[in-house]
Amino acid sequence: MDTRLANTWRLTVNEKRFIETALSSGIRIDGRNPFEYRKLSIKFGREDGSSEVQLGQTHIMGFVTGQLVQPYRDRPNEGTLSIFTEFSPMADPSFETGRPSESAVELGRIVDRGLRESRAVDTESLCVLAGKLVWAIRIDLHILDNGGNLVDAANIAALASLLTFRRPECSLGGEDDLEVIVHPPEEREPLPLIIHHLPIAVTFGFFSSESLLVIDPTHHEEAVMVGKMTATLNANGDVCAIQKPGGEGVLQSVIMQCLRLASRMASDITKKIKDAVETYNTERALRKIKRHPTSITLDGSVNLKEKLNEPSGHNVVNELSRKHLEKPRLASAENASSPGNNGEGESKSSNFGRSSRRDGATSNFVGGAASW
Amino acid sequence: MEVDRADGRNPNQLRPLACSCSILHRAHGSASWSQGFRFIQTSHFYHFNLFVFTSKCYFCYWVGSGDTKVLAAVYGPKAGTKKNENPEKASIEVIWKPRTGQIGKPEKEYEIILKRTLQSICILTINPNTTTSVIIQVVHDDGALLPCAINAACAALVDAGIPMKHLAVAICCCSAESGYCILDPTKLEEQKMKGFAYLVFPNSILSVLPEGSSLVQGEPMEHGIITSVTHGAMSVDDYFHCLERGRAASAKLSDFLRRSLQSKLPGDLSKAE
After folding, report:
1. Is B252's CB within 8 Å of A347's CB?
2. What is the DSSP letter of A205?
3. Closest CA to B184 of B7, B1, B2, B31
4. How many CB pairs under 8 A join A and B?
5. ipTM (interface pTM)
6. How many CB atoms are located within 10 Å of the residue A200 CB?
7. What angle do CA B194, B196, B202 make, to 5 degrees?
8. Is B12 touching A (CB cutoff 8 A)?
9. Using CB atoms, which residue from B46, B75, B95 is nearest to A97?
10. Is residue B142 within 8 angstroms of chain A, CB to CB?
11. The CATH number of domain B17-262 is 3.30.230.70
12. pLDDT digits over A166-191, tens only?
């Protein structure tokens, strides 16, 4: 019992007072305006439907997978959407494995309400065979780093991964047209989900003095605040969900102000998400053009004709690549003639140790790929 | 006796490695380790052959070559040990989080293997009656998952400043039907091969071994094996063959690990909150 108390992190009284005093003069401890979001970065993984969102210090990953299942009896024509949130112990020393804590369940419910009950994802298009087979979409959200305001970041991660997810195309065949054939991605291009609108969650924190209100609280501010409210809106100005779980009472005028702010934030964030997804889609399309299983043969020669020339500054690279068509032949001859290399492999080790710093505390070392 | 690999590597070639430390803010130590490419950007890299100083340039359009990426975070040492742990020593707790789905028996097995491996490299007598938690999150799995996780965990332990005797480097070798040994297989290769082994070797604390360095019963320390997990059937000779190849490749991995950890900034901000 004592050890658990010893291991939890608690804000000291001095820090609490400092945060509150600073807020009453409109200063936040990380230098933002009270109505400003932290820096949002949305990245995508190699597979469709995986996203990594960083909102300031909060880091969340989302994965979307799909499976064919039997539909619910009362909704035989609709697919299902389920959200699983993992409050990984990686994110916060107070998160534990096993049964999800209250805040984990709350987060899951808020994201769920925003996506499912506002009908953002079109579930009828997920039906393959009415009453027999539908697509069940599963969203896994992994919280990696708790820097505060997990709800907003988790929502963005869920949306980003849903927008980039592709499900395999199905067609009916066989006798009676009742057999479902799932086409692998190499055969037929997988299809994106139909998403009508993007519900964005915006979280507000309330403090003990009247009308002190911040958007996107950090985890220090979360430890100080006395009440919070999450409003889920979309860019059209529709309110999808509002969650104010107890806490200090606030005036009606403050709530209206929050909703107005939230709709502004929602359109900003929607734009950012859409831009990120656009970039990903163009890269994906480019990748598809170049992917040819026959173009790389054993001796390393590459079919240059199939390459789309990268713009600017890669002419040098193209020349080198022509040279390398001869070199691998030499190299493989070398390798063949010196089998007593003692198994020394050609493991790629980079001589470009590029260290880049993020927030002054990260160091990056890439072995092999010289990325720009 | 060339074996055809789908991504054009030769049998002794590892996938490109990438390691970054201190990526999480709340965790006391964190690291991500990836073997293979991320396909977001097209990139080219220069490869220096060990014997002939030539540079080859490959466009990385590896077909079907994926990447295995693992994120590791360390919290510790925290006060107290669990009930069935020895309170006279520090204990290590490993939590393995798969990409999707429930936690089942394979995850538990990975946790146990990782825990025993890390217990043998950490100095457990320094902080008795404490628990150090290592949390592993699988970001992407394309073969050689456990070695990737072990490497990430070691880097994260260094980032957190946990006292260790030496590091460990892990590698996966599989043996094909023809008796040939292949290093660092992708998931497809793992499934096709006759058998494969995850091997963990100690990382030497010296970059250049002096003559007559510490020999334990006539063999240098680096030739020891910390962990070996095999899947599938392979003959004894095949296994020894894999061990040799793995050991040779582990020297490269050790180098890479050493360099990537050395380039970290000293005097990092204290993360104890």
Report:
1. yes
2. E
3. B7
4. 238
5. 0.79
6. 26
7. 160
8. yes
9. B95
10. no
11. yes
12. 999 888 877 777 778 888 888 888 99
